[in-house]
Design goal:
Blueprint lengths: L3 H17 L20 H11 L10 E2 L3 H17 L4 H13 L1 H7 L7 E15 L3 E2 L7 E2 L14 E14 L3 E12 L3 E15 L2 E7 L3 E2 L17 E7 L15 E9 L11 E12 L2 E11 L11 H5 L12 E13 L5 E12 L7 E12 L8 E9 L15 E2 L2 E2 L9 E10 L5 E11 L7 E13 L5 E12 L8 E14 L1
Antiparallel strand pairs: 1-9, 2-5, 2-24, 3-4, 5-6, 6-7, 7-8, 8-10, 10-11, 11-12, 12-13, 13-14, 14-15, 15-16, 16-17, 17-20, 18-19, 20-21, 21-22, 22-23, 23-24
Organism: Hydrogenispora ethanolica
Keywords: Signal
Protein name: Capsule assembly protein Wzi
Length: 513
């Protein structure tokens, strides 16, 4: 029987294979492509069309997807839609994806790519925000901003926030691609400021994709959060290795199906007050043993840092997760586990997904998770026959061990934000999302969330939020996204009877260029 220990062993094996793997024959699908930003509509459309049953094999839980990866799925859905026509709103989604991913679809059909530098998209967002930013607890040096999480570490100021983003891309001869998203923002706290939200170069060596730069990463199946790695923090500058085409495993491992592996190496900030500049590394492998099931095993880890340097003589202890007896000799902190998604076509495409990760290790090789946390969700893509209504329910919980550590005392954070699930240490979260799709492609959403932080506190800090989302198409390819919500905070700062209310109203305009 295949247990978690075996899965993690396979993960290490796949990572080794990926690094040395070569594909002798060049293929169109093997081309480099830029990544799709995590806030793109493409993810929403792919998830919905997948839920309706137009995607033969499930998407993986490793994001961002590349544009070529998404184009492959769109081509499959376009072929499926010929045999089984889509509802009008879904056909509009598919048409928009086909138009947006046109160059990549042409490359899949064998067309030669044109190297050039281009402006891909402009986004202008204006948000009114009113309410406090919460301190989570004394176990992690992190904050939580109700109604504003998973936003690449960007914190809203009180009153007006205006943000202008440009997405710039370049491709040269299928050997080098470039992407950058500069951000210009204004608020009454910092006035005008400029930053680089994302920016990276990619090249390839046969089937090995090599990326260097700054780009958000999301590992897991959660909709509202992910236990190991999310874009709740400011993106790290990292070296990332991954395979372009899925790997086919030898022997009985072939029953695990196509495999996709990812490795990254980065450095955390040097302004930490615990250990300066520890490394941050991650390993993850996704498997798709059947068209209706996908799962992944992986780990992330803080390594070394000033005064706790990690050397080659520490490698075996790290791989076997032999922990030190005291904080002075400690050199790492690891989160490891697995996640999955299971689609049930016989139940109108119902999807069940979950994450199971450990904040500590059982001391074996590869590391087995212990002191575990979990996330579980259900997606019902067809509340009505045509899928014009859908529902998603999700619950997650971390324990008193999560995101804290005796050496890295700021916790599992970067620049004051939790690297994994924004709810943080020893917390629980419940989330519900109800969507309605209109024939013209307009989408209406009702969202509700309850978060309780630090369950060990006498009065856990509680946040109850509700918000409405609205997306519609305007003239000249403009898209309007609007959000309005409020959050009630009970036991603010873990104080009995202390309450507060946060408000958010946001309007965003996007246009491909």
């Amino acid at each position: 029987m295949l247990n978690l220990k075996s899965l993690l062993r396979i993960t290490f094996l796949i990572m080794s294979l990926m690094i040395v793997w070569t594909v002798p024959a060049w293929a169109a699908a093997n081309q480099l492509a830029t990544n799709i930003p995590l806030d793109s509509y493409i993810y929403t459309y792919l998830d919905k069309l997948d839920g309706l049953g137009y995607l033969p094999a499930m998407q993986t839980g490793t994001k961002p997807y590349t544009r070529m990866q998404a184009a492959g799925w769109v081509r499959e859905m376009r072929q499926q839609a010929v045999a089984e026509p889509l509802p009008e709103y879904a056909q509009k989604m598919l048409n928009e994806l086909i138009a947006d991913l046109g160059p990549e679809l042409a490359a899949l059909d064998g067309a030669a790519g044109n190297g050039r530098l281009r402006l891909r998209e402009l986004a202008w967002e204006n948000t009114y925000y009113d309410g406090p930013t919460l301190k989570q607890n004394n176990k992690t040096k992190s904050t939580y901003q109700p109604l504003n999480i998973n936003n690449n570490g960007y914190r809203l100021a009180d009153d007006l926030n205006s943000i202008l983003n440009l997405q710039i891309e370049g491709t040269w001869n299928d050997r080098l691609v470039f992407s950058a998203i500069p951000r210009l923002s204004y608020d009454r706290t910092e006035d005008v400021s400029a930053d680089l939200e994302a920016g990276y170069f990619k090249t390839r060596l046969s089937n090995l994709q090599i990326q260097l730069g700054k780009d958000p990463i999301w590992w897991g199946q959660g909709e509202r959060g992910s236990l190991a790695l999310s874009n709740n923090m400011e993106p790290l500058t990292a070296l990332k290795l991954s395979n372009l085409e899925p790997l086919s495993l030898p022997g009985w491992f072939k029953y695990l199906g196509p495999a996709n592996a990812t490795f990254f190496y980065s450095k955390l900030s040097d302004d930490r007050t615990d250990v300066k500049q520890p490394a941050f590394v991650g390993l993850r492998t996704d498997f798709t043993p059947g068209s209706n099931f996908t799962f992944a095993a992986g780990l992330t880890s803080f390594l070394g840092g000033e005064g706790h340097e990690f050397g080659w003589d520490d490698l075996w202890d790290f791989l076997t997760q032999k922990n030190a007896d005291n904080s002075a000799d400690e050199k790492w902190n690891t989160i490891a586990g697995f996640d999955f998604r299971w689609r049930l076509p016989q139940l109108n495409g119902l999807q069940i997904y979950g994450e199971f990760y450990g904040e500590d290790q059982a001391g074996s090789f590869p590391p087995l998770p212990s002191r575990n946390a979990g996330l579980f969700g259900v997606y019902l893509p067809r509340l009505t026959a045509d899928g014009a209504w859908d529902l998603q329910l999700e619950a997650a919980r971390t324990t008193r061990y999560w995101y804290s550590h005796w050496l890295y005392k700021e916790g599992y954070t970067h620049e004051g934000d939790i690297i994994g699930d924004a709810m943080g240490h020893n917390a629980k979260r419940y989330y519900a999302q109800l969507n309605h799709y209109l024939a013209d492609g307009t989408r209406l959403g009702l969202h509700g969330e309850y978060v309780s932080m630090d369950q060990a506190a006498t009065f856990p800090q509680e946040v109850s939020s509700i918000w409405l989302s609205y997306t519609t198409k305007l003239r000249d390819a403009w898209t309007l996204n609007a959000t309005a919500g409020l959050a009630d905070i009970d036991h603010l700062d873990y104080t009995a009877g202390k309450t507060e209310r946060n408000y958010l109203f946001s309007v965003e305009l996007r246009k491909p260029l």
